[in-house]
Amino acid sequence: MIFTGKRVLVVEDEFLVALGLEDNLRSLGCTVVGPVASLSAAMAAAAHEKVDAAILDVNLVGEAVYPAASILADRGIPFIFCSGYTGSVRMPAEFADAPRVAKPYTSRVIAEALSDLLSGGPAGETVLRGPANATNGM
Predict the structure, then answer these.
(1) What is the pLDDT of residues 94-104, one digit of tens each?
(2) Handedness of CA 49, 102, 96, 3 (dihedral sign)
(3) Which residues of 62-91 are buried (b: 16+ CB within 10 A; e: fewer)?
(4) Which of 19, 53, 83, 110 has its CA 20 to 30 A from that of 31?
(5) Residue-wise pLDDT tens digits, 44-89
(6) Three-state SS string across 9-54, please?
(7) In angstroms, rounded to a whole number, what is the distance separating the alpha carbons of residues 114 and 87?
């Protein structure tokens, strides 16, 4: 899939992870919106930014990103949850089928998950991927 011109909101509170993700998305041809690192900034961006998709860290300095995800869902903007806690944290029922990528992830995993998301890929299926599924480091 070609990502050129796709605007992707990045919500991530860890600076180095956000920087790597931003670089990865730009190398794919995406325009990165953010990154934003707090829930309040995530909610503002989710409500007002023109984006094609979003990548959301689940835990933002101790606050769950779910209110921002709800705003995106209400606007019809697809998103991926990324978290080191993906397997151990129970997702709210409304997001049980949302795509998820486990940290640490690789560039290839993010590209595949974003491709699935933007192409209407495995609808209703959870995407749980990690380093074992890819070879390019992130």
Answers:
(1) 988 889 898 88
(2) positive
(3) eeebbebbebbbeeebbbbbbbbebeeeeb
(4) 83
(5) 999 999 999 999 999 999 999 999 999 999 999 999 998 876 555 6
(6) EEECCCHHHHHHHHHHHHHCCCEEEEEECCHHHHHHHHHHCCCCEE
(7) 20
